[in-house]
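Design request, tokens follow.
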């Protein structure tokens, strides 16, 4: 179990504790009703409705997107160097304490 902090697009911090390893960051966000993580494609890396900005101190640990994710991000409004799709970040022990900011979207 690990802890993850989401800073929602409205600025409210959601600190989630006891998050199960192995699931995606998007799954953890959805099961805890994190505002702004819509995940319209259900985690298939086919949209960007689970777009987050990884805090720079965590970027090296989280790692870069693969080519498919990078292609989706390239077409995403608000893309930054720290952008990732939360559906593509699998939670593992070294991500305990991870902090991300939910990217703004039209539904937030």
């Amino acid at each position: 179990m690990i802890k993850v902090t989401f800073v929602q697009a409205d600025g409210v911090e959601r600190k989630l504790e006891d998050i199960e390893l192995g699931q995606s960051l998007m799954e953890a966000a959805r099961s805890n009703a994190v505002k702004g993580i819509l995940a319209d494609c259900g985690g298939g890396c086919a949209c960007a409705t689970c777009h987050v900005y990884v805090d720079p101190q965590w970027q090296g640990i989280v790692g870069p997107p693969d080519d498919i994710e990078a292609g989706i991000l390239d077409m995403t409004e608000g893309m930054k160097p720290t952008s990732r799709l939360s559906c593509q970040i699998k939670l593992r022990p070294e991500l305990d304490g991870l902090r991300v900011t939910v990217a703004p979207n039209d539904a937030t």
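Comment from the thread starter after seeing the answer: thanks! The chain has three helices and five strands.
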